[in-house]
Amino acid sequence: MTQPIRWLQDEIADRMLQKLDVVKLDVKDVLIVPDFPGKHLASFAKRYPNANIHSLSEEGISGFDMWRSKALSNWRSLFNRNAEPIASYLANDKFNLPDNSVDLVFSDLLLQDLPDPRHFLQECWRILREGGLIAFSYLGPDTGNELRALELGVLKLKNLLSPWDMHDMGDALLGERFSDPVMDMEFISLDYQSDALLMADAGALKLLQMPAIEQFKSGVLPQKMTLEVVYGHAWVIGKHLTKARDNIAYIDINQIGRKTRSDSA
Which letter, b or e, does each residue of 149-185 get, where b requires 16 or more Cβ atoms within 10 Å of its Cβ? Predict the structure, then answer.
């Protein structure tokens, strides 16, 4: 997201944690992706004081900044954290974590920047334990519609890498064997007092093909930008079942137990 829009990540992370207030989950290991210095760190430390925190820190954040934020939120978290840059995932399309190793994946405003969110879901399924939860948020395709409504040539815009709406994501979760997906969406309207601030945020949200350095005439650009924020969570249930074919779930023979009667007929 880069620094100009860091407040948005923090706000959305807070809203995601509020949505998890009603979720009962025994958490021993958490993956936060992307991680960044923010108030969510203190919330995680309070909610899951004994959990191991695995995180993929966002690009442009120094190791010292993350260390300082973690120390301020909970000094004990320094001893049960495993952090690496998110670039390692983007380069390899794989989390550096073993199968069935975490109970919660918490992803704040990442999926819109991935060319293949489905692969991300597959990796989350791989590392989540039975009964685990994925919770995420991302920007939907109607983000920045005010900019797209401008006359052609005023701005060089680009689409988000992943233009999935919440129905697309719900279908993808079911397709990747997640259970009971819950999706919702809200619009957040940002008002601006200057073109420079609007362009800084649009650039941070990766809506521009290149940084905007032109000087625009007063009144050409809109004074607001609307964000479509999609939220979702889903459970990992039945990992011992092989992937269904033709709407039939096949059970591993090793998962079938046999009861024997101790009494004689």
Answer: eeeeeebeeeebebebebebbbebbeebbbeebebeb
